[in-house]
Description:
- The protein has helices at residues 3-13, 15-24, 27-51, 58-82.
- By secondary structure, it is mostly helical.
- It has one domain.
- The longest helix has 25 residues, at 27-51.
Amino acid sequence: MSSFVIAAIAMLAALVPLGVVLCRAEVMSAVVAYEAIGSVAVLVLLLLAEGFRRPGEFELAILLAVLLLGGGLVFVRFLERWR
């Protein structure tokens, strides 16, 4: 197992507290947690692509990074209506 895969596993552990904040916090804290989860997910995908030596998988991480902004705006709009 390469060090990149070990780092990806360690970063996945960081998603647990962010998920708790996302579910239980106020609206603005939930939005920040959502954006942080997205950033960590992009980094995990990049680390896994490098760890397994599959350069074609970098495209998925780049696409996710680009779509995070629009997803965040939709999430805020949804929470604004729900509140």
